Amino acid sequence: MLDNSKDNSSKIENELNETGHLSSENQSINEEIESTSDDLSITEVEDKEIENEQVFEDYSELSIEELVVSLKKLIENTPVQQIKSPIDQIKNAFNEKFGALLAEKKQAFLDEGGESLDFLFSHPSKSEFNKLLSEYRVKREAHYASIEKKLNENLEKRLHVIEELKTLIDDAELSSMYKNFKAIQEKWNAIGGVPKSTYNDTWKTYQHHVERFYDLLHLSNDFRDLDFKHNLDEKLKIIEKAEALATEKDINFAAKQLQELHKIWKEDIGPVARDVREEVWQKFSDATKKIHDRRHEYFKEIHSKYDEIIDKKMRVIAEINNLDVSNNKTHNDWQKSINELEAFRKKYFDIGKLPYTKSEEIWQKFKNATKKFNAAKNKFYKEEKSEQQENLDKKMALIELAESLKESEDWEMATNTMKKIQSDWKKIGHVPRKFSDDIWKRFKAACNYYFNRFHQQKNVITKDQQVVIDKKMEFLESLKTENKFKKEDVFEAINKWQDLGKLPKNSRHLDSKFNKLIDAILDNLSLDKNEVVFLKFKNLLDSYVENNDYKKLDGEQLFIRKKIDEIVREIQQLENNLSFFSISNKNNPLVLNVKNQVNEFKEELALWKEKLNYIKKLDY
To answer: What is the pTM of this model?
Structure first.
């Protein structure tokens, strides 16, 4: 292992000075290669940036726990040299989230009367996050230490190969010289990369001694010409590949392949005959320039596209900054504004993605715009939270009152109070969500408990009520066995049924059975159809009055008035139609049919009016 790479560079420079400059031909080629190497170095950096750079993700949307999971996956599943940018993004998002949580916990601690110096807070995700970051740093340092070690080892190997080449030249044993030179070339080509600072000098030194070798080799033209021819064939193949790459659609792929071709040109293939050397290099250089020019245009276009995306995103940020929330007074107002903000957020992300290096500044502006909105929103909901706490206190007071009354037997007072409690409950606004379900269940339980007791006591049948039930059931059975009825018998039966007394609520089904039986009896009597209808109607309404069922009475009256209005409109329409016929058409079948319809509707109208008059006379 070398102790100092700078010493190696000085050693190489001294050798060049001692042995003289490279030939003018090779000097020219080296200058071109240095120029190309510089371009390739830039290209390589750009490629690696694009290849390794993670497109920006909105890690701010993830929770603290999700950020830890994302960090762990990156470290475990992605090469350590490719994750610096996304890890920086995750660190920023985590620190912001954890900072906000820490501030919230500290404020809560102070609100409860704690002292700032006494505040302590720990979170399992923070410890896990720090542990993962430490693991990442260790891996990254080990990775680059390993690379540096390998590069220095390769440099030592290359210097050793150069020494072998010098010894070969100095010994100048022509019989084995060419064979040994080929072995040295293979050994050189098999060695990997060296530190960047020593690369060009090392390569120049090696090429210098290669030229010295070929200068000696002129003593054996057969060997030299054979090697020149082989090298020329290989370089022409490389030129052909480079020219093909100039038309490759994927310019990034073409640039990477060009790098490989330059490496083979420099590392794997020796010189060609002097008379074609400049021409061959120029062809390769021209093909290289075409690819470089196309790549520069490509990046120019990419940067232009990024500028367009940035402009669009900046316009969205301006729209967010212009969101007016000054008139938001209610939760619904804020929900509308929140939906607007979400629409802008979606628009922002739908515009397109930027590399992290270009997006960081604009992302900060976007976050600042949303922070301004969120600050106003949080202020509102903080005040809302205070109001909700007051609402909670009010509802708790109603719960305590309801629970104090649920065993009461002062039915009138308790029932009226419970109904008012329920009405007051509806008027009180929202309470904190974490209490909402529990207090509602408690309030509902107290109310249900009371009203279940209330209805049970109402449904208890007294001895007197049981007597009424028994008598009515007996009377109902006697009517079923009777075969012959007159109109007067029906009226007598109805009066007797009412005289027997009022049924309790849970036995009202007997009224329905009686009414159905009376309807059946009336249908069997030789009475006018309208008279039967009216008698049935009268019997039904009398049962409603007896049971104080005013709701049904009101419903019947409303229904009757609607029917009257409908029939009047039908009559008016038909009479209007008749006005279109002349007097001479009075015997026309169509006219006669319309007149018959009018008369039928008038008869029906008379019946409905009779019903209305009856219901209006009832005292309820």
So the answer is: 0.39
